[in-house]
Design goal:
mainly alpha, globular
């Protein structure tokens, strides 16, 4: 259960708030910048934040070739996803994009089940199914809005 008393409670709640802010702010930035430039600038500031954190913690860097390769894939996939999110956000509503983008745990859950052999309990399976249903409902609602009279 999510609670401030658990060791991960406050960090988890703070992450949710910051993810919400980071999903909202691009809509404002995209009024001033094209999607590619917004993505580049936001990632540059992310890098500056990472350097500041490394400085704060003493610049001790652990190296493992496979770990670094996987971290690189995380960066490439995350940066590319952010660019696609920004491209979509530029032409669509924030409320629509945020709901669609928030379904990424469905993909991660299915990948963990298929590739890592993690178990998928009844609740997780129901969550995946409901996520897919919500995506289909969003797409159908969007189709009706664009069809016209």
């Amino acid at each position: 259960m999510l609670s401030p008393q658990t060791p991960w409670g406050y960090p988890s709640m703070l992450a949710v708030v910051l993810w919400g802010v980071s999903a909202f702010l691009p809509k404002l930035a995209l009024r001033q910048l094209p999607p590619l430039h917004m993505t580049v600038y936001s990632n540059c500031f992310f890098l500056l934040g990472c350097v500041a954190l490394q400085a704060f913690y003493g610049f001790h860097v652990e190296f493992n070739a496979r770990g670094v390769m996987l971290a690189g894939l995380v960066g490439v996939s995350g940066g590319t996803a952010q660019l696609f999110y920004n491209l979509s956000l530029r032409n669509n509503s924030l409320t629509y994009n945020v709901v669609i983008a928030s379904l990424y745990p469905v993909v991660a859950t299915l990948m963990a089940y298929l590739f890592l052999g993690e178990t998928l309990g009844a609740r997780q399976a129901a969550g995946v199914a409901l996520g897919i249903v919500s995506l289909l409902m969003m797409v159908k609602t969007s189709d009706r809005k664009t069809e016209g009279p």
